[in-house]
Design goal:
Blueprint (H helix, E strand, L loop, with lengths): L1 H8 L3 H19 L2 H10 L4 H7 L2 H5 L7 H4 L5 H17 L4 H4 L5 H28 L7 H29 L4 H24 L15 H9 L2 H21 L2 H8 L4 H29 L1 H20 L6 H30 L5 H31 L5 H41 L1
Helix pairs in contact: 2-10, 2-11, 3-4, 7-9, 7-11, 9-18, 10-15, 10-17, 13-16, 13-18, 13-19, 15-16, 15-17, 16-17, 16-19, 18-19
Length: about 425
């Protein structure tokens, strides 16, 4: 039965190509970011706040791509632009691994930050353009199911790499050679990804509705779209509140709880595995009930995640972190399907790169401001403490409570505003 559904969803050559590309792209991204990039950063002496940013570095660097919107609108070939950006982003990312052997010790952190920002800014822009190319072959009636199927493949690859990579890095005891092997494997994945992109047919030539040639235009047009901006503000606020605490999860587990790589990766498998089952369900609900319904419903669950994380300490972390991650998994399965489709639902078919760059940049601000606020609160709570280690653990747990309260308040406000809007529409009608 599942095979038949998959066959109907993947009913064109381009959709199959984009589906397969996801496996190689995900492999590259996972091996060069997340747990492994954080571990690499800690090995060269990076601090807590810097490592906290690494978990959401693609989103943070998305702020910078707004400057490219006007220029990229001039490209008519989505395929050519995607391939060029993929090559540049993958090459820049792979340069990160040579920093310990090519850069003197006192300059390594600065060089690391520069290369990470460059690489992941290019990656953020690559994702935007790739999505534009893919959307040209999408069936809107099947978009929820297609994105859920694509995300299922992403998570399947992530689970495999989590197990293999976690055991490998524990075997290598976090040494440089271990990271070098992971990046070498990522290089092979990037070559396969580029070959597949070259074999994917191009979409119809892209012709923007409006002649956008300045940065001011790239800001003015989306800002004038009230429905789109309402959605952007909602998602921005959510990400900001979530990342006050969530951005510290990696450093909390690896540094303060001293969990081994295989345990950390196993924890993240708890996020991945249930989503593989739930994505299809959320995709069908999203196509039937609407993407906004699934979006609003899923965000409630993230408050549960941060609440359970606030209970997780050195003695009970193996109980509360899995519960928190399981709650996050259920919510994230619906969120990734709904937020992707909802934003393209609200964008005009033309000037989508401009709208998507604007969205990515604004949402990226949430990933910048969240850890900044969280870091400031954490430093405040640690100030003057006799035992810094205990104070840091206490501070991070307090951040989770702040995120919980903020997300709950956001949902209450959003539902009240939306209720008033629906009443106004009904009265006018």
């Amino acid at each position: 039965m599942f095979a038949n559904k998959k066959e109907r969803i993947l009913d064109t050559g381009p959709r199959i190509c984009f589906f397969l590309q996801t496996a190689f792209g995900t492999s590259f991204a996972y091996l060069t970011s997340g747990v492994f990039l954080s571990g690499f950063a800690l090995s060269i002496g990076a601090g807590d706040v810097l490592v906290s940013y690494l978990s959401v570095i693609v989103n943070i660097c998305g702020v910078l791509i707004l400057a490219f919107a006007a220029y990229l609108e001039r490209f008519q070939s989505r395929k050519k632009l995607t391939v060029i950006l993929t090559i540049l982003s993958r090459t820049a990312t792979l340069f990160i691994i040579v920093i310990p052997v090519a850069v003197p010790g006192q300059m390594r952190i600065g060089a690391f930050v520069f290369m990470v920002v460059l690489a992941f800014t290019l990656q953020a822009q690559t994702t935007v353009v790739l999505n534009q190319w893919m959307m040209g072959f999408m069936d809107e009636k099947k978009s929820g199911r297609y994105i859920s199927l694509r995300q299922t493949l992403t998570l399947g690859v992530t689970v495999i790499l989590s197990v293999a990579g976690g055991f490998w890095m524990d075997f290598m005891k976090g040494e440089y050679l271990g990271f070098a092997v992971l990046f070498a494997a990522a290089a092979v994945m990037s070559v396969c990804e580029i070959i597949l992109l070259l074999r994917t047919p191009d979409s119809a030539p892209y012709r923007p509705l409006k002649n956008v040639c300045r940065l001011g235009d790239a800001l003015k047009v989306p800002l004038g779209d009230r429905r789109f901006m309402g959605f952007v503000v909602y998602i921005l606020t959510f990400y900001l509140l979530l990342n006050i605490s969530d951005s510290f999860t990696m450093v909390y587990m690896m540094k303060y709880l001293a969990l081994p790589y295989k345990t950390v990766t196993a924890m993240y498998m708890i996020i991945s595995l249930p989503q593989i089952v739930l994505l299809g369900f959320w995709g069908r609900v999203s196509d039937k009930r609407g993407h906004e319904f699934v979006l609003k419903t899923s965000i409630w669950l993230f408050a549960g995640e941060t609440l359970f994380m606030s209970f997780a300490g050195p003695k009970n972390c193996l109980l509360f972190i899995p519960i928190a991650f399981l709650t996050s998994s259920v919510g994230n399965a619906g969120f990734v399907v709904a937020v992707f489709n909802r934003r393209y639902e609200l964008m005009p078919r033309d000037n989508r790169i401009m709208y998507d760059n604007f969205y990515t940049a604004v949402i990226g601000a949430g990933f910048v401001l969240g850890p900044m606020i969280g870091g400031a609160v954490k430093r405040f709570l640690e100030a003057g403490a006799a035992v810094q280690y205990a104070a840091a653990i206490h501070g991070i747990r307090c951040l989770y409570l702040i995120s919980t309260a903020g997300i709950l308040l956001l949902q209450v406000i959003y539902y009240r505003v939306q209720g008033k809007r629906e009443v106004c529409v009904h009265v006018k009608g």
